[in-house]
Write a structure and sequence with these properties.
The structure is a homodimer of 203-residue chains.
Chain A lengths: L11 H16 L6 H7 L14 H22 L7 H18 L1 H8 L1 H6 L4 H22 L11 H20 L9 H16 L4
Helix pairs in contact in A: 3-5, 3-7, 4-5, 4-8, 4-9, 7-8, 8-9
Chain A binds a DNA duplex (30 and 30 nucleotides) through loops.
DNA sequence: ATGCTATGTTGACGCTGTCAAGATAGCATC
DNA sequence: GATGCTATCTTGACAGCGTCAACATAGCAT
């Protein structure tokens, strides 16, 4: 089984993804080169090309994993119909924890590396869009059902704006620009207040 | 003056920055290599190193220019003490226009290239922080003076959360992830509503 | 046993940022 | 005006990268 030098690796595809996740977490996208990856998997430089079309494809697969994890997180978060606040707060904190737990993964999922510079796989695009749709649905079904939206507010718009808030917080935090990690809890609560204020017209 | 091949360039420092801004706008950071830059300036590959410590330093200088422009934009935006809504809306649209007008510049200013992967210059850090402080001050002085903050809301927190919303919108938009450029105006207005809802307790 | 296909290998190309060493220009000083 | 210092610019080189082409092997179906 564990013969040190056999010609065929066995399951290089999975091994590459596994090793890539580690390398991503430790060094970020910048430190993730196919050559190093191959070396770590004990395989030659170009072997990965038999399992992924190119680096972009491998990164897309990696990001896709992340979206599945995020999907699971969203399923677990449950709002309460009568008062969405605690549920929303729990979700927001969970989201931030998700991003902080593996910043590089989050960056890969939402960063320009894939969406702007690279070419997002059709599969990745589908999963990512599905993830957002689930968020909109959840917000609409669980969060907003018991509340009255201010006049003319489209649930989709609320979802977009609130996700943007969440995403913006994560980016500012993870990129280490303005928000201290210590302030995070307070800012997060403030964000919840922001989102809730838009949802229920009066306290 | 304009002799085609003289040994010394004359003002390579400025020429590099100028050409870099063009290259950045057209091709993004990924397309901005020192070698190409040097070629465009009609100079050898390593000449830029006599004017910038390395690529990181040049990019920092480029980003710094952007923050100065953003500063100017913020000075021009004026809120009205009695009703901050139109002023805020104007500012938000101006901010989004700023980001959309030169996406790559915005990305450079706030992206991980400098703040996470690279080493932000001390000068850049100062300018960037000053820019945010100006935003907090402005929000506090112009925007919130006439309004009552909900109990216990720190102006700094409001500023952080609202900037995060703005920033998140820009990122999602520029990275081409979720929000269509067409939806932008509606989402932007929704964001203003979000921010205002947090500021004035009841309509 | 034969041959096809999936998988892995080495070699090479052009691109990148950056360092070291040498060339030149311009300016201050003697 | 000659001398020398320093800022500026040059070529050469190196390691790293993604990726293509050509070749080698292993394993499986026929």
């Amino acid at each position: 089984m564990t013969q040190p030098a056999r010609y065929h690796h066995g399951d290089l595809h999975a091994a590459l993804l596994r090793e890539a996740a580690v390398l991503l977490r430790e060094q970020g996208v910048e430190g993730l080169s196919l050559r190093r990856l191959a070396e770590r998997a004990g395989v030659s430089r170009t072997a990965p090309y038999h399992h992924f079309q190119d680096k972009n494809a491998l990164l897309c697969a990696l990001a896709e994993d992340g979206f599945h994890r995020l999907d699971r997180l969203m399923e677990e978060a449950a709002f309460q119909a009568d008062d969405p606040e605690p549920g929303l707060r729990r979700f927001v904190r969970g989201y931030l924890r998700f991003a902080c737990d593996d910043p590089e993964q989050y960056e890969l999922m939402f960063g320009r590396t894939l969406w702007k510079t690279g070419r997002p796989t059709e599969s990745l695009t589908r999963v990512a869009h599905g993830c957002f749709r689930r968020y909109v649905d959840k917000l609409e079904a669980d969060g907003l059902r018991a509340t009255t939206l201010p006049g003319g507010a489209d649930p989709l718009r609320v979802a977009q704006a609130s996700w943007a808030t969440l995403h913006g917080l994560c980016r500012l935090l993870l990129d280490g620009i303005y928000v201290d990690r210590q302030d995070m809890e307070a800012v997060s609560d403030q964000a919840v207040a922001l989102m809730l204020a838009a949802v229920r017209p009066a306290p």
